[in-house]
Structure formats: structure tokens, C-alpha cells
């Protein structure tokens, strides 16, 4: 009878003994061979299966060693594990760890308490914020760069974590487009901006340190610093972004998005940037500048990065290709303060935050050959028009219920409910009708200070935006 449950494949690369062991183990673990059942003798099972007796003996011995079977000399082996494999021959069910009783590290325990990134699982539909339009990405050109990178792989030296060509290309791009002042070897290439935040937290946060974060702000940043043991304090915003300056109470680190505050889209003025630098003592307070969508400035010339204004090396500059290219590229970067480059490179290897060399080389070529800037120029025009289309539509169709804060750039905007602060209820109502937005109050660090709807425009075509607006108008 047991032989009928076993299916051994002679041509399989896996040996017969290994196959038999695995199949018997699964049958016991799934409960099909129940606790107390006597298996046939090795001689009989071997003959029923048409395999050598050694094959069966090997499988029995292995399963005895793993605790699934008990065997004594001259007797048939007996299953000693309960159905569904839950009984533990070395203990009782009560001694099995359960999620609540696992002894996790303090880092993992903190992760269990943060709800990021699971808190936002919205479907990818208009007007979901946070994305550029992947449909506009020149996949044919990118494909050629990837192919050349793969073909050239045999000629490249192995083991360089941050590829020099990409570092050089990025240093040049960041200097000319964003005003970042950095040598190429200050740039770490990472799988995402989030990886950069984790790396920074690992390198400079000691549990108990205070970190200031814009409120409302980017929840991924709060999650990374909290997981490292930081106390995250939300700092209220005014028209230019974060309004509190560090003084005697200076924190260990300040996280900000000065190009377009996430989520409000506000631009921090040059004067405010300088004020922050003046107030942050080198060696005492680090500043993290997250320039996640700084490529997209529509109404004015881009304000130079805070990093480029800093003469004392106290700013970490973080960027990502998730918005400028597509989020599936999985590439970001960190421009490290000179004094921390060595430490961060070691940490990068320890944690294994290393981006594929193939992709790094392809991107270096994509940038050096001008494709990146050409793509940016094209989508900048497109996103600018989409922003204007969304703003005009909101004012025309929903002007009575929503007031729009028009950002000077970026990929999303905030519309506030004029007669209510119940943004989460509004978001739920809209999702049901098929329009995806995000509640500003859900981006608060503690008790919400601000309310409204975060609406994405960059990822959505004008006809998609118009359709979403019609749905929204019928909902309100
Ligand atoms: C402000 C901000 N920083 C960083 C990121 C994360 O970028 P990445 O996908 O590279 O981790 C996002 C993504 O939405 C963001 O909004």
C-alpha cells in the first residue's frame, strides 16, 4: 500500500535513495502515514518498488536520524511523528516556538511594532501617488545597455562593489544638475534609497538617540531610524518645510526632503537651508537630505541641494532611480560625508547592500551616452503637463470640496478637504469607487497635524486623470 504512494523517477538527477527519503518524509509530515503506523520491512518495500534493499535501508536510517521513525533491530520501523508533522520527537507541542514567544532581536522586535511598509497596500490604479510612469521608460535603449553590459562582463574585474564608471557618471550628473559637491568615491551605489536610510541608521544611530523627521513625512525614514533604536520626533512644517531649528536640544540626526517635502511638495528656500546648516553642529547633528524626486522641477530653476552648501561634511545626500526611471530598476545611491565613507563601505558589505554590477554598468552607459538626461527632459515636460491637468481638473470639478496645494515640482500633490478632516474615510470611499489616493493623516508620526489627499499625477495619462476626477466628483 505504501509503495503505491511512492513515485520514484529513475532518470531524475536526484538519486533514488534521496527521492525515497524525501517522499516518505513528506508523507509522514502531511499525516498520510500516521503516528504508530508500521512501515513494511526494507526487503518488502524494496521489492514492491523495484529498488535495491540498500536504497530503502538508507531512507529508513535517515528518517530515524531525523526523528520521523523509530526502529529497533529486526523490527519494522514505526512512524513516531503525529499527523501534519506537528509532533516533535524531541519535545512536546508546548515547547514549539510560536510567533508570540519567539526570542527576536531588539531590531526585529521594533520592526514588529512599525506597520511600514505593510500599512499601504493600495492597488496600482489612478491616482496612486509615489510613482513616475513606467510606460514612458525607453526599455529598448535600456535593453541595449543591459545587453552590452552583460557581453562586456567577462572583461571586467570582479569584486568592485561600487562600480567606478557609475560613480563617475553620477558624480558628474549630481554636480551639474543638483549642485551636489562630491568626489566619485563618496558615492555608494545601493539597491534603493531605503537601503541608504538603513545604512545611515546602522552607522550613526545608537539606541536612544533622537532623530527629527518632517511631520507629516516619509514613513520609510521613520521606520529605518526607529528600527535602529532612535526616538523619532515629528517636526511641524510651515510654508518652507521643517520649522524648528536645532539649538541646545539638537538631535543626533535630522531627516528632510527639501526639494519637495514629502508629502506636501513644498520647496525649502535657500535661506532656510542655510539656516539649518548653520544650526547643525558638525560631528553632533547629521542631516539626511532625501532628494527622491528632485529631478522634477517645473516652475523655477532647481534650488541647489543642501549637500552642496555644506562646507563641513555633515550632510548625507540620498537619491533613487525609482522615480526618475522606474521603481523596478531597484537602484539608489548615497553620497556619504567624507569622514564616513570608509565606515559606510564596510557596513555596506556587512549588510550586503550591493547592487548588481551588470545593472550598474548598464546604468553608467545609459547616463554617459545621454539617455538618462534625454529621458528626464521628456518626462519632465509630460509630468509638468499632467500636474497642470490635474490641478485644473480639481479646481474645475472639485473646487467646492477640495483646495489644492500646487507643488513647484515632483510627482504628486496634496488636496485638502475644505469641510472635513476625515481624510481616511474619504480615501476609503474613493478606493471603493476605483480611485486610489493616500490620506495625509496616515503619514503622521504621532497625532496627525495635517489632513488631505495625496494624489499622484506623474504615473497617469491625462485621460486617466480625467476619468479619476469624474469618479471623485461623483463621490463627494
Ligand atoms: C521621500 C521618499 N524617499 C525615499 C523613497 C524610496 O525610494 P526607494 O524605492 O529607492 O527605496 C520614497 C519612495 O516612495 C520616497 O517617497
Query: Please, how many domains?
Result: 3
CATH second-level architecture of the largest domain = 3-Layer(aba) Sandwich
Largest sheet: 7 strands, mixed
Describe the strand arrangement of the main beta sheet, using strand numbers: 3-11-10-9-8-4-5
Report mean pLDDT, rounded to a whole number. Answer: 92
Are there runs of 5+ residues with pLDDT below 50, and where?
A: none
> Which word captures the global form?
elongated
Structural class: alpha/beta
Number of strands: 15
What's the CATH H-level homologous superfamily of the largest domain? Type I PLP-dependent aspartate aminotransferase-like (Major domain)
The unique ligands bound to this protein are:
pyridoxal-5'-phosphate
The CATH topology label of the largest domain is: Aspartate Aminotransferase, domain 2
- Please provide the ordered H/E string of secondary-structure elements: HHHEEHHHEHEHEEEEHEHEEHHHEEHEEH
Q: Helical residue percent?
A: 25-40%
Distance between the termini: 66 Å
Number of helices: 15
Rg over C-alpha atoms, rounded to the nearest angstrom: 29 Å
According to CATH, what is the class of the largest domain? Alpha Beta
- The fraction of residues assigned to DSSP E strands is 5-15%
Organism: Bradyrhizobium agreste
Keywords: Aminotransferase, DNA-binding, Pyridoxal phosphate, Transcription, Transcription regulation, Transferase
Protein name: PLP-dependent aminotransferase family protein
GO molecular function: transaminase activity
Amino acid at each position: 500500500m505504501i509503495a503505491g504512494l511512492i513515485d520514484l523517477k529513475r532518470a531524475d538527477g536526484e538519486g533514488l535513495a534521496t527521492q525515497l527519503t524525501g517522499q516518505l518524509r513528506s508523507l509522514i509530515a502531511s499525516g498520510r502515514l500516521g503516528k504508530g503506523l508500521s512501515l513494511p520491512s526494507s526487503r518488502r518495500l524494496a521489492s514492491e518498488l523495484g529498488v535495491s534493499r540498500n536504497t530503502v535501508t538508507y531512507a529508513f536510517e535517515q528518517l530515524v536520524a531525523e526523528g520521523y521513525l523509530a526502529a529497533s533491530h529486526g523490527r519494522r520501523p514505526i512512524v513516531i511523528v503525529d499527523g501534519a508533522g506537528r509532533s516533535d520527537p524531541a519535545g512536546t507541542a508546548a515547547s514549539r516556538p510560536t510567533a508570540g514567544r519567539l526570542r527576536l532581536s531588539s531590531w526585529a522586535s521594533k520592526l514588529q511594532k512599525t506597520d511600514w511598509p505593510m500599512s499601504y497596500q493600495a492597488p496600482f490604479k489612478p491616482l496612486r501617488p509615489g510613482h513616475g510612469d513606467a510606460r514612458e521608460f525607453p526599455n529598448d535603449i535600456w535593453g541595449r545597455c543591459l545587453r552590452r553590459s552583460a557581453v562586456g562582463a567577462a572583461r571586467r574585474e570582479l569584486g568592485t562593489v561600487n562600480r567606478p564608471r557609475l560613480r563617475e557618471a553620477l558624480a558628474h550628473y549630481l554636480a551639474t544638475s543638483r549642485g551636489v559637491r562630491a568626489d566619485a568615491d563618496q558615492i555608494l551605489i545601493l539597491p534603493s534609497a531605503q537601503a541608504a536610510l538603513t545604512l545611515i541608521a546602522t552607522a550613526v544611530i545608537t539606541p536612544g538617540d533622537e532623530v527629527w523627521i518632517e511631520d507629516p513625512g516619509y514613513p520609510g525614514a521613520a521606520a529605518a531610524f526607529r528600527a535602529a533604536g532612535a526616538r523619532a520626533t515629528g517636526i511641524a512644517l510651515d510654508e518652507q518645510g521643517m520649522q524648528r531649528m536645532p539649538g541646545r536640544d539638537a538631535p543626533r540626526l535630522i531627516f528632510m526632503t527639501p526639494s519637495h517635502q514629502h508629502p506636501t511638495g513644498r520647496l525649502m528656500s535657500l535661506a532656510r537651508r542655510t539656516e539649518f546648516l548653520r544650526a547643525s553642529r558638525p560631528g553632533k547633528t547629521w542631516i539626511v537630505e532625501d532628494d527622491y524626486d528632485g529631478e522634477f522641477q517645473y516652475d523655477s530653476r532647481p534650488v541647489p541641494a543642501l549637500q552642496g552648501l555644506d562646507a563641513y561634511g555633515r550632510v548625507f545626500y540620498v537619491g533613487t532611480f525609482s522615480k526618475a526611471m522606474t521603481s523596478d530598476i531597484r537602484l539608489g545611491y548615497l553620497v556619504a560625508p567624507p569622514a564616513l565613507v570608509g565606515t559606510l563601505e564596510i557596513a555596506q558589505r556587512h549588510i550586503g547592500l550591493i547592487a548588481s554590477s551588470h545593472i550598474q554598468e548598464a546604468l553608467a552607459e545609459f547616463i554617459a551616452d545621454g539617455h538618462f538626461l534625454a529621458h528626464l527632459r521628456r518626462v519632465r515636460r509630460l509630468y509638468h503637463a499632467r500636474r497642470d491637468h490635474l490641478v485644473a481638473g480639481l479646481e474645475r470639478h472639485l473646487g467646492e470640496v477640495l483646495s489644492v496645494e500646487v507643488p513647484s515640482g515632483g510627482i504628486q500633490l496634496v488636496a485638502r478637504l475644505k469641510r472635513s478632516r476625515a481624510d481616511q474615510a474619504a480615501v476609503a470611499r474613493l478606493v471603493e469607487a476605483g480611485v486610489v489616493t493616500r490620506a495625509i493623516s496616515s503619514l503622521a508620526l504621532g497625532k496627525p497635524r495635517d489632513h488631505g489627499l495625496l494624489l499622484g499625477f506623474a504615473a497617469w495619462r491625462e485621460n486617466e486623470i480625467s476619468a479619476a476626477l469624474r469618479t471623485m466628483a461623483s463621490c463627494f
